[in-house]
Design brief:
Elements (H helix, E strand, L loop, with lengths): L3 E2 L12 E3 L17 E7 L5 E8 L13 E2 L21 H8 L2 H21 L5 H4 L1 H15 L2 H14 L6 H12 L2 H24 L6 H20 L2 H6 L1 H28 E2 L4 E2 L11 H18 L1 E12 L2 E7 L6 E6 L2 H7 L2 E6 L7 E7 L3 H8 L4 E5 L3 E2 L11 E6 L3 H10 L3 E7 L2 H14 L6 E5 H4 L5 H12 L3 E5 L2 H14 L3 E2 L6
Parallel strand pairs: 2-4, 15-16, 15-18, 16-17, 18-19
Antiparallel strand pairs: 1-5, 3-4, 6-7, 8-9, 8-13, 9-12, 10-11, 10-13, 10-14, 11-12
């Protein structure tokens, strides 16, 4: 029978709650952490009276030392069912909420839009002539940067460079900055798209001011391009994306493609017309190729098309452990921290419905990876009601925040429900990452495949909290803070719903625990 070792100062009550430390010898530790069971123990206080304390099983610290001052036998869970931790509520200050709201995403967006706005004002007032002469370069440069920030290949390249050069050795603040920058590249995407649209309006205004010098076809091309880009931007507004996701997918993608085609039309016409002589120059003298607008559009088109070249129809095996979840098995092992876009294909699905899910794999050598698809809409419901034998997917996966786990010596991956899909691979592929998974009726809901993957981890590397078995949710921050300290973690990655993410991010910010939460901007 193994025992907990409790460090108690002589003649003093220990602080509550206590974190039980495991012996450093592997032979002395056989406690399963399938869930952080609570046990009642008795110790002597300063007056010699018995004092009941609550012990919370915690993962081993990297430098834990043996201690034999007080040994407390854990209560078997079958005799006394573990109770949920008491949840303590505390009000979060406005400053903490503001710091979380004004995250790196919004900082990037603000910086990008502000710099472009300054240039726009200088150009509009005539104090900077270059943008007035080459407005198209500012329009297309911003739009190209916006597309680049959302390109899978470019993103994977950035993650590879950062993970290769800065793994574990730089100061923690620098590594946290790298993760934050990579996670919030969407701020540059949104900022450059907004700025590009603003420069486009400026370009159209300049043309209409001198409309007598331009043919109607150029004016028409400019207006059509502007309308298309603004519809694409409007469909990506947060409230549209969250409340009407299919509308976002359709308009942002299809109208965006139309906007790219109309941009080609506008650029070729504009670069082929001489407003001074009021004449077209269609000669094959290379004049268009020498224009920077032309090359901006070339690069934009390449980065738009490239991800679609990797789309393939692949065989899948679908497991339906419950009406709430579909577990999809794909061939091919994956590195951790990647997300996969899938579609059922067809004219509508192949163009409009590519949904992203975290991949679960033991590594590239495993030969397989899994997606956990929780039922939340028509697409995921169809996976349960009519399991497919094949799905369309982009073979070029895009990286998520977990991909930067290589930067840290030790960390915690906390998730709720189907968020396990984005979290489990990190812990499967690295013994330095600890898994905390909270959910309801976990094994019955998610099935034997997922349970077997978790069971392949050492018991000291994970905590499962089944709210149905335990009668409620834990005090998440108490559990997270104690695990963070005992595991010797440097950072916490969170994948949860909006409410759970907010609760944990606010709690971590309050406790000074570096944490990165869930994003809904892709």
């Amino acid at each position: 029978m193994s025992a907990f070792t409790l460090d108690v100062e002589k003649g003093l009550h220990p602080p509550s709650p206590l974190v039980a430390k495991f012996p450093s010898s592997p032979q002395d530790s056989s406690i399963s952490l399938l869930s952080p069971a609570l046990s009642r123990a008795t110790t002597k206080g300063a007056g010699g009276q018995d004092s009941a304390v609550t012990l919370l099983a915690a993962p081993p610290t990297p430098d834990a030392k043996d201690s034999s001052r007080t040994l407390v036998q854990p209560t078997p869970p079958k005799e006394i069912p573990p109770l949920p931790l008491t949840k303590t509520k505390s009000k979060t200050s406005r400053m903490i909420r503001f710091r979380l709201w004004f995250n790196t995403y919004r900082k990037f967006y603000t910086l990008t839009v502000t710099l472009n706005f300054i240039g726009l004002v200088l150009a509009a007032t005539g104090k900077w002539q270059y943008p007035r002469q080459y407005t198209g370069a500012f329009v297309l440069g911003n739009l190209q940067c916006a597309i680049l920030m959302r390109n899978e290949l470019f993103g994977r390249f950035l993650y590879l460079i950062v993970n290769t050069l800065f793994a574990k050795w730089p100061p923690l603040w620098f590594r946290l900055g790298c993760t934050s920058t990579l996670q919030h590249l969407g701020g540059i995407h949104s900022g450059c798209a907004t700025a590009g649209a603003a420069w486009l309006i400026f370009r159209i205004v300049l043309i209409f001011i001198d409309y007598r010098h331009f043919p109607a076809v150029i004016l028409t091309a400019g207006v059509v391009t502007t309308v298309a880009i603004f519809i694409s931007l409007a469909s990506a507004l947060p409230w549209v994306r969250e409340a009407h996701h299919n509308i976002f997918e359709g308009y942002h993608r299809l109208v965006g493609w139309f906007g790219l085609l109309s941009t080609w039309w506008f650029v070729v016409l504009g670069d082929s017309y001489n407003a001074t002589t009021h004449s077209w120059h269609w000669q094959a003298d290379g004049s268009i190729v020498r224009q920077q607008d032309f090359w901006f559009v070339i690069v934009m088109s390449i980065f738009v098309i490239l991800p679609w070249v990797t789309v393939r129809k692949v065989p899948v095996v679908v497991e339906i452990p419950s009406p709430k979840v579909a577990i999809i098995r794909f061939e091919r092992g994956m590195q951790q921290g990647l997300l996969s876009r899938i579609s059922r294909g067809g004219l509508r699905g192949g163009l409009l419905e590519y949904h992203a899910f975290g991949t679960i794999s033991k590594g590239r050598q495993s030969g397989e990876h899994y997606l956990i698809c929780g039922v939340q809409g028509d697409f995921t419901q169809s996976l349960v009601d009519h399991p497919p034998t094949h799905l369309w997917t982009r073979q070029l996966k895009f990286a998520g925040v977990s991909n930067t786990s290589k930067l840290y010596k030790r960390g915690i991956r906390v998730c709720t429900g189907t968020g396990l899909g984005a979290a489990l691979s990190t812990c499967l592929q690295s013994p330095d990452w600890y898994l905390i998974w909270m959910g309801s009726n976990q094994e019955k809901t998610f099935g034997k495949t997922i349970s077997a993957l978790i069971a392949s981890l050492p018991p000291s590397q994970y905590t499962l909290w089944d709210s149905k078995e335990r009668g409620g949710r834990p005090d998440v921050m108490k559990l997270l803070k104690e695990t963070y300290i005992s595991w010797g973690a440097e950072v916490v990655f969170i994948t949860s719903n909006m409410g759970g993410n907010t609760e944990m991010m606010e709690g971590c910010k309050k406790e000074g625990i570096p944490a990165f939460g869930t994003l809904w901007d892709f």
